[in-house]
Amino acid sequence: MSTQVSKRKPYQQKMAPNWWLKNQAYRYYMLRSATCLFVMLYALVLLWGLYALTNGEIAFNAWLTVQQSPLFIIFHLVTLIAMLYHSKTWFMLAPKTIRIQLGKTIVADKAIEGAMWLSWLICSIVILVLLLF
Predict the structure, then answer these.
(1) Which of 95, 118, 121, 122 could, after both became Cys, cross-link 109 (CB 3.0–4.6 A)?
(2) What is the secondary structure of 79-127 as a DSSP string?
(3) Helices 70-97 and 57-67 sit at what angle, rounded to 10 degrees?
């Protein structure tokens, strides 16, 4: 019994490289996905700082000096904006992925989103208090 492979080519739709620019929802999706690059870069900067910390006070002070340069301040601000956008879109998406049922009532989407923002605010305040005191 021989196995014969079809000589027909499967249909593959041609897609332009800018397919995502044609729909606003796709643009927002791609922008949200691009924020992962800032997470990665920020993680590398923090790892660099941890490495500098293990190499002594002089290395760590040099790292701190680099962090105070205008280029890195702009980087931190852009990263903050990207992370706020990522958080906002994730919190808006959460009610679509989480359904909480209390008895026969389903918790409203706005309540789930509000709870996420509240938990974010509480965590931010706790971190700020720990850093300041």
Answers:
(1) 95
(2) HHHHHHHHHHHHHHHHHHH---EETTEEPPHHHHHHHHHHHHHHHHHHH
(3) 80
CB 22 within 8 A of CB 31: no
CB atoms within 10 A of CB 95: 19
C-alpha torsion angle, residues 96, 99, 105, 109 (rounded to 10): -30
56-109 pLDDT, tens digit each: 999 999 999 999 999 999 999 999 999 999 989 989 888 888 888 889 999 999
Residues 12-50: b if buried by 16+ CB within 10 A, e if exposed = eeeeeeeebeeeeeeeeeeebeebeebeeebeebeeebe
Residue 120: per-residue pLDDT = 92
On whether the pTM is more than 0.85, the answer is no
Residue 70: in which H helix or E strand, if any?
helix 70-97
Distance (Å, rounded) from C-alpha 34 to C-alpha 31? 5
